[in-house]
UniProtKB/TrEMBL annotation:
Record-linked InterPro entries: GlpE_sulfurtransferase, Rhodanese-like_dom, Rhodanese-like_dom_sf
PROSITE patterns in the cross-refs: RHODANESE_3
Protein name stated in the entry: Rhodanese-like domain-containing protein
Top-rank taxon: Bacteria
Domain annotation Rhodanese: ranges: 14-102
Amino acid sequence: MNLTQEDWVSQFETDENAVILDVRTEAEFNEGIIANAINIDIHLGQGFISEIEALDKTKNYYVYCRSGMRSGKACEIMNELGFENAFNLVGGIIEWDGEVVAP
């Protein structure tokens, strides 16, 4: 499900079961992240699938990338793997108005 930054943040902040997932490359991740994000690079192919399948499906995942394209694809993959709640940040980190921190 695609969410605007406002909806993504307001939903995340009230979600006790939330996990922030950054699907960018390690190099991009190291340039700065949304606080507390975990990194699983969507470009890892089967490695990405394996790491996603190891995640807790009862959690709610707030997913972002640079522009929102890769994270949208990641949410689709997660839905196919049985994750009910994967939320894509429309516009990605390049349109992010909030704080960006070092990983």
